[in-house]
């Protein structure tokens, strides 16, 4: 009798035979496509360094008379019980071990190269009192580790900072032990961590802000510890699926993105999720004690000094409970006095020289409406508040100039200074406000012209009306359909350069004008409007020759000085304001704006 070979294609193959052959073919295909998916049965496929160092580390688990001493014989560790070898991974699983003697986690000997140890998973959870001792700091050299399960045991001591070197670690379970100490900021380097369980220990202190670098984190269990302080803003922005921070002593609010509306499972103490959590569960600064909170408190306390009506309600250190202060739980603070009555008014406080403005968390200041009773000048020191995004001081009684120092506020998005009594010129340094989209200075007493360099900015709305400006609005603003511009007709007219030209103003020391110089030669020529006067004494410091009949207008600077567009001689390269120098200034500002706009996201 002949045997007929079944056909996979055609009518000769029965369904039963085809079904029996198909799994075999799939297995063969998998073996061909993925030869490394087959489990290794010995250590011959590993390098000498891998065999030597892995064997040395595994043997350190063995103690005389222990269960492992009987189970682990020879040097082919891939045949040992509790050890699983694969070409791409290696697992030590002691969870089924029933130790005859107490088990401790061994240190990695200095003679062992941790990078050559093949272990990717160490599973030793659920051993209860059979597993005690501390977490070996030397395990931070086991750089191939991807998963460590040591929960439900009797481990004590601190969390090793050296484990921050395990940058490939994805799962770490240390829950249900007796671990103590603080959460290491160094663990912020565990950027591939997806599951972290430190629950049911005796951990204290704050959650490190650097843990916000764990951008792949999906599950975080910190419940049943003694953690304090607020949730750092960098951690609050993580998109987590499961979060348990209950039974701690945390203050402030749990992030909104962690609640059920964002498909996250959040377990937290009620004060963290209450609608008034920022006030009812506010963090005292002395408890939180971060540099940013101390700097923010110092800045805000200046308002209580300069505005007497705030002194009674801004008396403690929990500034998130103060009227007019809004904390959003993301390390940002807004001042909104629009609904407050400041009574006797006050002034804007200076930022103390001892305070690092880059640490102050205030990003919005609004003093308008009922609270519009502030007088005095704009503090130049606010130029160091680099987190500022909006300043709205409409309808107050502010006087004095626009501080040139505010040109450093590169993140400022909205600036409303309308309906005050501000005077002087618009500083050329304000060309540095590259993020500004809304600019209102209408209804003041500003003079001079708008610096030409500000034409390189890309605001959406500008109102400079009802001032005493001369010259012209930057041509980029008048020609752009993307800018809503409100300005007096004189600065928008087609002949504004001539009909609304800026007159020079004598200050007693130097002469200033907002008109850009037209001279391109070393001495004033016909295009400059002034002829050089070599006989008249010049009032301009550093000037060699003044214009005829105008001792306050310099035509040519002395050697070693450079003539600015405002007719001021400054130490620098000698000569007058030429087209090349003006072009260099514009080119530099252009490059700065273009470079910054590449990183700006709207």
Automatic annotation (TrEMBL):
Principal place of residence: other
Q: Which residues form the signal peptide?
A: 1-33
UniProt KW keywords: Leucine-rich repeat, Repeat, Signal
What region holds the Leucine-rich repeat-containing N-terminal plant-type domain? 55-85, 297-328
Localization of this protein: Cell envelope
Q: Which PANTHER family match?
A: OS06G0587000 PROTEIN, POLYGALACTURONASE INHIBITOR 1
Family assignment from sequence similarity: Belongs to the polygalacturonase-inhibiting protein family.
Name the chain's protein.
Answer: Leucine rich repeat N-terminal domain/Leucine rich repeat/Leucine Rich Repeat
The species this protein was found in: Novymonas esmeraldas
């Amino acid at each position: 009798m002949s045997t007929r070979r079944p056909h996979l294609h055609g009518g000769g193959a029965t369904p039963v035979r085809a079904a029996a052959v198909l799994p075999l073919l799939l297995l063969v295909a998998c073996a061909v496509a993925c030869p490394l998916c087959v489990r290794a049965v010995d250590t011959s496929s590993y390098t000498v360094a891998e065999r030597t160092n892995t064997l040395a580390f595994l043997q350190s688990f063995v103690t005389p008379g222990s269960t492992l001493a009987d189970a682990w014989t020879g040097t082919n560790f891939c045949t040992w019980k509790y050890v699983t070898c694969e070409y791409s991974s290696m697992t030590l699983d002691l969870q089924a071990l029933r130790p005859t003697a107490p088990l401790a986690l061994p240190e990695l000997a200095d003679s062992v190269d941790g990078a050559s140890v093949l272990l990717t998973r160490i599973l030793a959870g659920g051993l209860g009192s059979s597993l005690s001792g501390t977490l070996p700091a030397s395990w931070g050299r086991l750089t191939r580790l991807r998963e460590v399960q040591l929960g439900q045991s009797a481990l004590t001591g601190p969390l090793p900072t050296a484990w921050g070197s395990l940058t490939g670690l994805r799962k770490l379970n240390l829950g249900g032990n007796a671990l103590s100490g603080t959460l290491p900021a160094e663990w912020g380097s565990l950027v591939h961590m997806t599951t972290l369980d430190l629950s049911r220990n005796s951990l204290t202190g704050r959650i490190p802000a650097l843990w916000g670098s764990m951008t792949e984190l999906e599950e975080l269990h910190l419940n049943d510890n003694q953690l304090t302080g607020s949730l750092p803003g960098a951690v609050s922005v993580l998109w987590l699926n499961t979060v348990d921070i209950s039974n701690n002593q945390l203050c402030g609010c749990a992030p909104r993105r962690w609640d059920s509306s964002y498909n996250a499972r959040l377990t937290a103490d009620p004060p963290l999720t209450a609608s008034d959590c920022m006030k009812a569960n506010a963090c005292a600064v002395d408890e939180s004690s971060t540099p940013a909170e101390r700097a923010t408190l110092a800045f805000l306390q200046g308002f209580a000094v300069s505005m007497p009506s705030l002194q009674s309600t801004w008396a403690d250190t929990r500034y998130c409970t103060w009227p007019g202060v809004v904390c959003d739980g993301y390390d940002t603070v807004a001042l909104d006095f629009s609904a407050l009555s400041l009574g006797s008014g006050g002034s804007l406080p200076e930022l103390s020289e001892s305070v690092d403005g880059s640490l102050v968390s205030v990003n919005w200041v609004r003093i308008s409406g009922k609270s519009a009773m502030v007088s005095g000048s704009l503090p130049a020191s606010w130029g160091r508040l680099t987190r500022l995004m909006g300043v709205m001081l409409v309808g107050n009684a502010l006087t004095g100039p626009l501080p040139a120092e505010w040109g450093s506020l590169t993140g400022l998005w909205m600036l409303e200074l309308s309906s005050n009594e501000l005077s002087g010129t618009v500083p050329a340094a304000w060309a540095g406000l590259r993020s500004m989209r809304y600019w209102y200075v209408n209804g003041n007493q500003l003079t001079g012209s708008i610096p030409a360099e500000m034409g390189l900015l890309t605001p959406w709305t500008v109102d400079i009306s009802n001032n005493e400006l001369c010259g012209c609005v930057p041509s980029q603003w008048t020609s752009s359909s993307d800018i809503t511009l409100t300005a007096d007709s004189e600065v928008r007219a087609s002949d504004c350069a001539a009909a609304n030209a800026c007159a020079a103003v004598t200050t007693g020391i130097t002469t200033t004008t907002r008109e850009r110089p037209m001279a391109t030669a070393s001495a004033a020529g016909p295009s400059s409007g002034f002829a050089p006067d070599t006989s008249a004494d010049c009032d301009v410091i550093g000037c060699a020759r003044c214009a005829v009949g105008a001792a306050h207008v310099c035509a040519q600077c002395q050697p070693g000085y450079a003539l600015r567009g405002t007719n001021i001689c400054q130490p620098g390269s000698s000569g007058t304001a030429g087209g090349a120098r003006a072009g260099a200034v514009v080119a530099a500002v252009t490059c700065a704006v273009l470079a910054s706009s590449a990183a700006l996201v709207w």
